[in-house]
Amino acid sequence: MRGRLVAGNWKCNGNLGANQALLAALRDGLAQLRGVECSVCVPYPYLTQAQQALTGSTTVWGGQDLSQFGAGAYTGAVSADMLVEFGCRHAVVGHSERRSIFGESDAVVAAKFEVALKAGLTPILCVGETLQERESNVTEAVVGRQLAAVIDKSGVAALGKAVVAYEPVWAIGTGKTATPQQAQAVHAFIRGSVAAQDRALADGLRILYGGSVKASNAAELFTMNDIDGGLIGGASLVAEEFLAICRAAERR
Ligand code: PGA
Predict the structure, then answer these.
(1) Which residue is catalytic, options 37, 90, 95, 133?
(2) Distance separating alpha carbons of residues 118 and 139, to the nearest angstrom
(3) Residue 251: what pLDDT?
(4) Active-site residue among 97, 104, 129, 167?
């Protein structure tokens, strides 16, 4: 049976005081969970704080992005090795906000995925369609293309050390969650696409759902066969909400 993962994506939120309280609550509240790994992907300046608060706990942490380059003349960039130095387990790659606001192409996302993997991080590769794409019935084409960009560059076996997150852009931060059936359909498509190349790998691949997951809808989403956890934005900033979502993902 696949283990589950619930990862918080704080985006550009937080401050030292609020983070301290939130991280302490996660450290205590997530200690007893079974069958689910919990992670928080925090803004770069707070990686030390997350590392100090969570070292020795069952909760891991990560970055929300990383540079496609290694060390060098890349002003403003943060390399995979730097994330590793701060104890990161995960790096979110290809979030739709990175793709749309910061102009990251499939090729850039694939390059970031590869450097994350080479550094020993577990990339959380985000894929997902916009509302317009969904309404034009090209969801599978879009998600398939985003996935293929990574497989073409790194090989399908690379997915064995990664996590995929299906995040319909129209559901992110909008309060509109995909129905469990809508999410399941795309998750099954993703698993099926990978299975066409490597069935065993596809069976073990964790595919998270992201997009307005809350304590009130998490349990229903997690009943779906191909939903192996969540990537949580807004609700990951509220300790009780995030703890409840992690509990809903438990496998006992
Ligand atoms: P949301 O964000 O939970 O606030 O919709 C999810 C994400 O962007 O990862």
Answers:
(1) 95
(2) 30
(3) 84
(4) 167
Would residue 167 show up in a list of annotated catalytic residues for this protein?
yes
Total domains in the chain come to 1
Amino acid 213: pLDDT: 97
Structural domain contains residue 115 = yes
Chain segment 64-82, per-residue pLDDT in tens: 999 999 999 999 999 999 9
CATH of the domain at 159: 3.20.20.70
Mutating to test ligand 1, I would choose from 93, 213, 216 the residue with most ligand atoms within 8 A of its C-beta, which is 213
Q: State which ligand 1 atom lies nearest to the alpha carbon of 231.
A: 9
Residue 238 lies in a domain: no
Domain range for 157 is 4-230
Distance of CA 209 from the midpoint of ligand 1 (Å): 10
Q: Provide mean pLDDT across the span 107-129.
A: 98
217 CA to middle of ligand 1, Å? 13
Q: What is the pLDDT of residues 212-251, one digit of tens each?
A: 999 999 999 999 999 999 999 999 999 999 999 999 999 8
Q: DSSP labels for 132-194? A: HHHHTT-HHHHHHHHHHHHHHHH-GGGGGG-EEEE--GGGTTSS-PPPHHHHHHHHHHHHHHH
